[in-house]
């Protein structure tokens, strides 16, 4: 039919559940365009365009920087992470921020569950929490606080 186009996307790789090698004949039917992970500035620009009127510039920068840090760690040869924060995840965090969630609350919902907690202090989850904590306001409490000191409530991680 005239003026009809089909666009297909694929998550290819072992990180995705039930992925299979695509048949060569099927792949030959499509033009393949590989899209790389966004850079820090590209991520920040995208989030600013979508949420700049609802989320502060400093929070948008923090979200983009947290994602960038996990991506660099994920790509490094001796990286501590088996996955990274995707653009889909940064968009979700900004949606939560726009709805009134704090950065720690948004991270708890949209980031932390994607990282393995096994290994305790050496876990991927702890590593990501440390990255996130660097972007918390200095007056906020330590997200690793597990004590019962009522004057020092822990951030809900």
Question: Can you lay out the helices and strands and say which pair or pack?
Answer:
Elements lengths: L23 H4 L12 H12 L5 H19 L11 H12 L4 H8 L13 H10 L24
Which runs of at least 5 residues are low in confidence (pLDDT < 50)?
none
What is the number of beta strands? 0
User: Helix/strand/pairing class, anyone?
Assistant: mainly alpha
Please describe the biggest sheet, giving its number of strands, its sense, and whether it closes into a barrel.
Answer: none
How many helices in DSSP terms? 6
Helix content: 40-55%
Identify the quaternary structure here. Answer: single chain
Cα-based radius of gyration, to the nearest Å: 19 Å
The rounded distance between the terminal residues' Cα atoms is 53 Å
Which of globular, elongated, flat, extended, rod-shaped describes the shape? globular
Question: Percent of residues in beta strands?
Answer: under 5%
Query: Could you spell the SSE succession in H and E letters?
Result: HHHHHH
Determine the mean pLDDT.
Answer: 84
Q: Would you mind describing this structure in some detail?
A:
The chain contains 6 helices and no strands. The longest helix has 19 residues, at 57-75. It has helices at residues 24-27, 40-51, 57-75, 87-98, 103-110, 124-133. It has 157 residues and is an all-alpha fold. The model has no long low-confidence stretch (mean pLDDT 84). The chain has a domain at 40-133. The termini are far apart.
């Amino acid at each position: 039919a005239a003026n009809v186009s089909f666009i297909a996307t694929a998550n290819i790789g072992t990180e995705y559940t039930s992925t299979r090698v695509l048949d060569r004949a099927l792949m030959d039917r499509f033009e393949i365009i590989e899209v790389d992970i966004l850079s820090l500035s590209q991520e920040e620009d995208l989030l600013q365009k979508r949420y700049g009127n609802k989320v502060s510039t400093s929070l948008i920068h923090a979200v983009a920087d947290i994602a960038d840090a996990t991506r660099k760690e994920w790509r490094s040869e001796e990286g501590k992470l088996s996955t990274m924060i995707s653009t889909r995840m940064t968009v979700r965090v900004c949606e939560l921020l726009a709805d009134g969630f704090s950065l720690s609350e948004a991270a708890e919902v949209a980031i932390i569950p994607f990282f393995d907690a096994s290994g305790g202090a050496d876990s991927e989850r702890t590593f990501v929490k440390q990255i996130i904590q660097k972007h918390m306001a200095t007056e906020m409490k330590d997200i690793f606080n597990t004590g019962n000191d009522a004057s020092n409530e822990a951030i809900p991680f």
